[in-house]
Every structure is written in C-alpha cells, then in structure tokens.
TrEMBL record:
Domain SIS: 105-244
Protein name, entry field: RpiR family transcriptional regulator
Pfam family, one: HTH_6
A GO BP entry: carbohydrate derivative metabolic process
UniProt keyword annotations, A-Z: DNA-binding, Transcription, Transcription regulation
Organism: Listeria booriae
Length: 250
C-alpha cells in the first residue's frame, strides 16, 4: 500500500484520502497539508491521523516518503537490449545434461495415459499451452486451471500410476503447487517439473526435473521472468516423444 509493504486498515474517510493520493501522486508530493485537506474535504487533523497510519510522524514525513516512492517507480525499467540470457539458455539445451533431462521425462511420459499440466499465473498460461501441444503430438493432456479446487483424494488406484503431472513454476516454491504435488504423489502419480532451479522444493519432489537457469526479472511487484525456456522445454519433450513413436512405427 503506497510505500508500505503491507496492507493497513483504513476507515471510509481515510480510504477517500488514499484514493485521492494514489490518483494524484505527482501533485500530492508538492501539496501543503491544508491543500490536501481542502482537496479531500477533511480537516488537517484527519490528514495527520491518516499519515500516522502509514508510520509517519506528520505530513512532511509522509510527503517525503511519498516522493521517494514516486521516484523509485519511475526509475524501474525493462531492459530489452540484453539477449544473452536467451542465447545462453539455447546453448545449454545442446548440452548432455539438458538432453538427459528431456530423455528422462520422455521415458516417464511414454507410460502415461493421461497427462496433467498445472501452473499459477503466467506459468498457468504456459501450462494451458502445454496441454494443447501435448494433445496434438502425443496423448490426451489436460490443463488444471485451479489446482486447489481439483483435488485427487478419491483417484482410483487402477489409473493413478498412469497419470503424470507436469508442473511449471519459475520459483518452484509456490505453496499451492507443492501441496498439489504432495497430494498426487500419495496417489502414486508421476511428477515432472519445469523450474528455474533444480534446488527448488518442487524440483526435489519430482520424479524428473528440467531446470533452465535464467535471470529472474521483476518489474515493480510483478515477476516478468521470461517464459521462453518453459515453452521451449515443453515442445522439446513432446517432440522427443513423437520422434520415438514414429521411429518405432517404421
């Protein structure tokens, strides 16, 4: 909430002040306390109470912190010039370790009759693409959009060992996905994870992990780490399986 890293409780009047400050950030940092009070139709005493809730002794301190917050927002930029991250990743895909991880995942998936894809946020969109791509090249694959509302407590033991979950996560530390993986592991389902690091919790819980190791990027509070490695990895696995099947059928 503004320059705080937590949410604080505001009453209706204070919420009115908050919305005005957020909507007029560049103006408020130059206002006097009387100016803000007049603009929000409250007393200066109310403005002072509002400032104290943000951990400030008075309006002057609030205004300084607000100005620093506004400056930090404008300093954040996205670097589009550095392509070495992608080039380095693509070079690593030609290395024996990456190929071995692809081969291990393909071997597990060859025995699966149902493939499930899951991810949260941007990784969820990649998971949806993965389900479509796998269904086109290999076998039926489904995207689990909301893992918490798709439990597998009553999964039949006759099919559980024929299910493989492919979980996608940059951090590999998403609590919801970790719980979901634990749930499916108790049902003897196979787990494949695609993460940024092999040291993540999800990677350690999986039967096979394919890490891609690229720089994590943040813009303000959003994780904008590239999903290119995840997409490439999914396509590599599916194409490897399709190649194996075609080779056997000849």
């Amino acid at each position: 909430m503004l320059f705080l890293d937590k949410t604080i409780e505001l009453n209706d009047t204070e919420m009115t002040i908050y919305h005005y400050v957020v909507g007029n950030l560049d103006t408020v940092i130059y206002m006097r306390i009387r100016d803000l009070a007049d603009a929000t139709h409250v007393s200066t005493t109310t403005i002072l109470r509002f400032c104290r809730k943000f951990g400030c002794n008075g309006f002057s301190e609030f205004r300084v912190k607000l100005q620093m917050y506004a400056q930090n927002r404008t300093k954040i930029s996205v670097d589009m010039s550095d392509e070495t991250t992608y080039i380095d990743f693509l070079k690593r895909t030609a290395q024996p370790e990456f190929k071995a991880n692809i081969a291990q995942s393909a071997k597990i998936l060859r025995d699966a009759e149902l493939v499930l894809f899951v991810g949260i946020g941007a990784s969820g969109i990649i998971a949806e693409y993965g389900a479509l791509y796998f269904s086109s090249l290999f076998t039926l694959a489904l995207h689990i959009e909301d893992p918490l509302n798709h439990p597998f407590y009553h999964l039949s033991s006759k099919i559980s060992d024929k299910i493989c979950l492919i979980a996608i996560s940059v951090s590999g530390e998403n609590e919801d996905l970790i719980k979901y993986i634990h749930q499916l592991k108790t049902q003897k389902c196979k787990i494949i994870t695609i993460t940024n690091s092999a040291k993540s919790t999800m990677a350690k819980l999986s039967d096979a992990n394919i890490p891609y190791y690229i720089n994590k990027e943040m813009y303000q509070e959003a994780d904008i780490t590239s999903q290119l490695p995840a997409v490439y990895t999914i396509e590599c696995i599916a194409r490897e399986i399709r190649t194996q099947i075609d080779r056997e059928e000849k």
